[in-house]
Amino acid sequence: MNHREAVKDIIHQLPECRKDFREIKTSSSASSVIRLLTNRIRENIRSGNRPQIFKSLSEVNRLYLLGDLALKNAIENTFVYSLDTLTFACESGVRKIIFSKLSQPLQLIYLKQVYKSGL
Questions:
Q1: What is the rounded CA–CA span in Å between residue 30 and residue 101?
Q2: Is 59 exposed, middle or buried (0-12, 13-18, 19+ CB in 10 A)?
Q3: 8 dihedral zone (left: phi>0; alpha: psi -120 to 50; beta)
Q4: Are 98 and 52 in contact (CB under 8 A)?
Q5: pLDDT of 56-93, one tens digit each?
Q6: Which of 82, 58, 73 is nearest to 9 (CA)?
Q7: What is the separation of C-alpha 63 from the centre of its chain, rounded to a whole number of angstroms?
């Protein structure tokens, strides 16, 4: 799945994102698609909309599993990289739930990034 197909899939799985993705041009990149999805997840975390958070995380897992290399790199470099800032203000219980909803490969990539940075 490339980033254009990913936009269609995101809109199908998360119809409330339709307005956000209306601005995406056909020449957009995988990074811009994942950035928009990450921003949507950030908004849902701030508002405490757990069902929407879980649906969005499920979609990230799906995109990572089915996505092409560009989409996978965008997820690793945009979404996974921003997980700490996304979950910083969460209660520890909510943060644990969010991390438990990530697929095993994304959890491993997150751990690699954390250990690589020396945190």
A1: 22
A2: buried
A3: alpha
A4: no
A5: 999 999 999 999 999 999 999 999 999 989 888 788 88
A6: 58
A7: 9
